[in-house]
Hints:
mainly alpha
Amino acid sequence: MSIWGIIIIVLAIGIILSNIMLVKKTANMKMPESVLKKAEQQKLLEQQEKDKEKSARENRSSNQDEP
Length: 67
């Protein structure tokens, strides 16, 4: 095997191991309050958009039923 092949394999293993170590380290970290608030606001906005789309679909279907 050439030296370049060995270098590539060592680099790949190093990247994989460093990513695993990073995930293990950050697994127990607490989320900042600002991030949690933004996530909650985003969920509310998405729910409102879904509700609007659902009501729009219902209005279109009820309008099609009328002669």
